[in-house]
Structures are given as C-alpha cells and as structure tokens.
C-alpha cells in the first residue's frame, strides 16, 4: 500500500535555501522532518536516475494544512509537480516446502482419479469387476446368440403358462360343477369344454407372441 511520495526537483528546491517554502514560516518541527526526509536517500527505490527521496503522506498533509491555515498563495499541487507516488515492491513470503509437496501430491491424486473416471468405460481393466474380458467377448462376438437364448427362454415360459392355465381351468370347472351336475360324466364334460375354450384363447395369444419372438431371431 502506498504511503510515500518520490519527491521531485520542484519540491526539493522549494524547501531549500531561498526556496518558496522559506517565506511560509514553516513550523520548526515540520521543516526539520521534511529536510530529514529529503536528505535520506532510499537505494531500494526503482528509478533510472538512481536513489530517490521519499516523503511520507503524513508530512505532506501537515504541509498542506499549514499552507491552508496561512491562506498561502502557494498551492500544494504546484510544489508536488514532478513528484510520484511510491509503490513499494511486495515481497512474497516463501512457501512452506511441506505444504507445496502436499499440494503436488493432491494434484497428482486428483489427476489419476479423473483419468480413471474418464477411461472407466473404455478399458477392460476395472478392478471392481471380474471377467470383463469375457463380458467384452460376449458383447462383441455373441450378441445374436444371447438374443436367441433369451427368445427360447421366453417361449418355454409361455408354453408352461399355457399348460398351467388349461389345467387350472379344468380343475376349477370340475370342482365347481358339482353344485350343478351330479353325474361324473357331466362334470368332466363341462370341465373339458371350459378348459378347451380357455386353451384356445391362450393358444391364440401364445401363437401371436411366438410369431413376434421368431420374427426377431
């Protein structure tokens, strides 16, 4: 943060013997502080002309206040012609080597995790899954075979459901017909009729489903 001015030649001449500030009757303390600041050269100041003189803002404010109190015709901006605000060079503190090493380690870990996440779907070496090479072979070389196996399984399940449905219809009708028919032959005939109707309906649905499955093979 800036707190000083690089005094220009105009300000130095004004404060010197016979200068413009001599007739302003500066307070002894203020004049002594200004002269001491101008006599002290700062070699740390970057300037093509070598070391320069620094005057703090506090002294400049005191000088400005004195000129205002005296209603002086000498203005501060005229005295500061050629002066510049001094911005000290910011010195960065050295970084902790342990902290730097830890940050670098964290960066490497994050980079490895990001790489694994990106390449997870394109590599066969994911340790969380076993048999990835065989799974890849199935997906690449046997997609048609897997589809046919699934179709055969669906066909077997359909036939099994058909048989169970027909048998269930026959048994239910046979047991329920005892309240209508007293003879065994009549009960069996009624059960066969109902089972046949249910079987035909199920057969129609099954045939349509099988046609769809066979069309995909």
From TrEMBL:
It is a multi-pass membrane protein. GO terms for biological process: vacuolar proton-transporting V-type ATPase complex assembly. Keywords: Endoplasmic reticulum, Membrane, Transmembrane, Transmembrane helix. The chain crosses the membrane at residues 154-176, 188-207. The keyword Transmembrane applies. It comes from the Eukaryota. One of its GO terms (cellular component) is endoplasmic reticulum membrane. It is found in: Endoplasmic reticulum membrane. It holds the Pfam family Vma12. The keyword Hydrolase does not apply. This is Transmembrane protein 199. It comes from Tupaia chinensis.
């Amino acid at each position: 943060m800036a707190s000083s001015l690089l005094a220009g030649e105009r300000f130095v001449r004004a404060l010197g013997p016979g200068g413009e500030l001599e007739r302003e009757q500066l307070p002894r303390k203020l004049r002594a502080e200004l002269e001491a600041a101008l006599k002290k050269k700062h070699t740390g100041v970057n300037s093509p002309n070598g070391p320069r003189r620094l005057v703090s803002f506090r002294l400049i404010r005191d000088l400005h206040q004195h000129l205002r109190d005296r209603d002086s015709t000498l203005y501060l901006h005229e005295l500061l012609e050629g002066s510049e605000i001094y911005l000290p060079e910011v010195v960065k503190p050295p970084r902790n080597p342990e902290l730097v090493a830890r940050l670098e380690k964290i960066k490497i870990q994050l980079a490895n995790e990001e790489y694994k996440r990106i390449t997870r779907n394109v590599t066969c070496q994911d340790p969380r899954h076993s048999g990835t090479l065989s799974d890849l072979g199935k997906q690449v070389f046997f997609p048609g075979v897997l589809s046919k196996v699934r179709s055969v399984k669906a066909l077997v399940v359909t036939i099994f459901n058909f048989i169970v449905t027909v048998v269930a219809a026959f048994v239910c009708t046979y047991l329920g017909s005892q309240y209508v028919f007293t003879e065994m032959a009549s009960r069996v005939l009624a059960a066969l009729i109902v089972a046949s109707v249910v079987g035909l309906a199920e057969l129609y649905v099954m045939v349509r489903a099988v046609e769809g499955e066979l069309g995909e093979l």
